[in-house]
Amino acid sequence: MTITAAADGSALGNPGPAGWAWFVNENCWAAGGWPHATNNQGELQAVLELFRATAHLDEDLLILCDSQYVINSVTKWMPGWKRKGWRKADGKPVLNVEILRQIDEALQGRRYRFEWVKGHANHPLNEAADERARAVSTAYQNRTAIPSGPGWTGAGSAGSASAGLPSAAQDTGARDTTEQGTAARDITERATTARGTIAQGTAEAPRVPSFTEESAQPGLFDWDDEPTTVSLTLNLDADTHARLLARARTERLSPEALIRSLL
C-alpha cells in the first residue's frame, strides 16, 4: 500500500511567523513552526517531519507538494550538492542546508515519490496542509497556542493497511473506526479526482515543470501566496548594460540569471 500525504509551509511576511504541516486525513496530521522563518523552510520542514513520522512503517510514501523548490532540491539537486560539500554550482553555500541534511538522512532506505500539485487550487489534501501550516504561523504571530495536531495515528484506508504508533502530542480521544475509515476514503476519493489517478509502488520522482536552481532559491521573489506575475525593471546606461552583458557571457549565464545571482 501507499501512504498519501500532503506537506506544506507558510510564512507571514516571508520571512516572519512560520508554520509547517503534513496531512493524511482529519485524524492523522501534524504541524509546528517558529516565530521567524521563511516559507521554504516551512515547506522543507513539513517534508522532514513527514519522513520522521512514518519512519517506523514499511510502506511506500507519496508526498503531495506545491513547492517545486522542495521537490527539485530533494530529487534533483541534493546529490550534486552533497558531492560539492553542500555547495551550489556557483560555489555558494546551499540555503537551508541544515534541514536538507536531515531530510537526506531521513529518506535513506525509504520508498518515496513526490507529486507536484498546484497550490491554492482547491486540492483537498494540499488545502488541508496549507490551512494547518498557516494556522501555526498565525498562532505565532498572535502568541496563542500552537495547533500541533494528533501526529501519526495510522493512515487507515486512506493509504496504509498497518496502523502507526500515536504521537506523544496526540490528544484526539477515542474515535469510532468506521467513521475514521469513511472520512479517510472520502478524502482519498476527492484527492484522486483533483489530481488524477496516481501510480503506486514506485520510488521515481514525478515530472515537474522546468525549474532552474537559481530561480528556486528563496529570496526577493519568494512569496507565501503565489503571485500572478512578477516583473522587475532596471534602468541602465549604455556602459553599465555593456558590462552586464560581458560579465554574463564570461560566467556563461543569461543576464537575468546573473542579476538573480547578485540579489
Structural commentary:
The protein has 263 residues and is α/β, with parallel strands linked by helices. The model is unreliable at 157-230 (pLDDT under 50). It has a five-stranded mixed sheet with strand order 3-2-1-4-5. It has eight helices and five strands. It has a single domain (2-211), classed as Ribonuclease H-like superfamily/Ribonuclease H (Nucleotidyltransferase, domain 5), CATH 3.30.420. The longest helix has 19 residues, at 124-142. The radius of gyration is 20 Å and the shape is globular.
Rg calculated over all Cα atoms: 20 Å
Count of distinct structural domains:
1
The structural class is: alpha/beta
Sheet having the most strands: 5 strands, mixed
Just give the CATH class: Alpha Beta
Helix content: 25-40%
CATH architecture: 2-Layer Sandwich
